[in-house]
UniProtKB/TrEMBL annotation:
This is DeoR-family transcriptional regulator. The keyword Heme does not apply. InterPro entries: Carb_Metab_HTH_regulators, DeoR-like_C, DeoR_HTH, NagB/RpiA_transferase-like, Tscrpt_reg_HTH_DeoR_CS, WH-like_DNA-bd_sf, WH_DNA-bd_sf. Keywords: DNA-binding, Transcription, Transcription regulation. The keyword DNA-binding applies. SUPFAM superfamilies: NagB/RpiA/CoA transferase-like, Winged helix' DNA-binding domain.
Length: 260
């Protein structure tokens, strides 16, 4: 019997956390081989560690649950920079006319946009966020299409193959896209590959890509790459946006609007 065979579950989980935080590639298959246990045992360990906020599971593995790479809960984000998000939403909503088709990404800023669209007529909204779908469900002039998919608890976003398949069949006028970070070199980023993949599908499905992000997202880089800044047509942010970032974006042909 090897040392790994005799290892207690808590010791095994501690070593898993160490490997994840070291930046090494961590997959279920590799961990099962390293610790001499079944893949189902490793999956159980990862589920428990994720519930404790110590890592975040991905398809086939795990990534660090580091504050610089992941994000707060949906409830926590709702109260963060609320005034700025509402100002951004007012500018964004002013771009949406009757008869348009739009995609609303999951997020608290996009939820504020949805709240301002309830009086539109003949508006089609595609979203991967059930809070947005619920907000618009009783709007008589708005048709809401929900992508389906797997719910991420932290963001209440629907992700995965089902969400992506729906978006592949969509041709929208606009997408209002959220992001956890905007950096000139690293582009748009988000904490998990699953959400990054859905966001890329949204970008591909819309004729105009409008990123809605408060100024705290400037120069931040999260774990999963979404797309380069060249993929966006416009950024709507608040007055606190770093002028250097605005200048760099404008130089690359990205329109920048600051909400008052």
């Amino acid at each position: 019997m090897t040392g790994c065979d005799r290892m207690f579950p808590e010791e095994r989980k501690r070593r898993i956390i160490e490997r994840v935080r070291s930046g090494a590639a961590v997959t279920v298959q590799d961990l099962a081989q390293v610790f001499g246990v079944s893949e189902s045992t490793i999956r159980r360990d990862l589920r428990e560690l994720e519930r404790e906020g110590l890592l975040e599971r991905t398809h086939g593995g795990a990534v660090p649950a580091d504050p610089t790479l992941t994000e707060p809960s949906y409830a926590e984000k709702t109260d963060q920079n609320r005034a700025e998000k509402m100002a951004i939403a007012r500018v964004a909503a002013g771009m949406v006319h009757d008869g348009a088709s739009i995609i609303l990404d999951a997020g608290t800023t996009t939820l504020e946009i949805a709240r301002l669209l309830k009086d539109r007529r003949n508006l089609t909204v595609v979203t991967n966020a059930y809070p947005i779908a619920a907000e618009l469900a009783d709007a008589p002039g708005v048709e809401v299409i929900v992508t389906g998919g797997t719910v991420r608890g932290k963001t209440l976003a629907l992700v995965g193959p089902l969400a992506e398949q729906v978006l592949e069949q969509v041709n929208a006028d606009l997408v209002f896209l959220g992001t956890n970070g905007i950096d000139i070199e690293r582009g748009l980023t988000t904490p998990t590959p699953a959400e990054a993949s859905v966001k890329r599908r949204m970008i591909a499905a819309a004729r105009k890509v409008v990123v809605v992000a408060d100024s705290s997202k400037a120069w931040r880089v999260a774990f999963a790459a979404v797309a380069p800044v060249s993929s966006m047509h416009m950024l709507i942010s608040d007055r606190g946006l770093d002028p250097r970032l605005a200048h760099e974006l404008l130089a690359r042909g990205v329109q920048v609007l600051t909400a008052e």
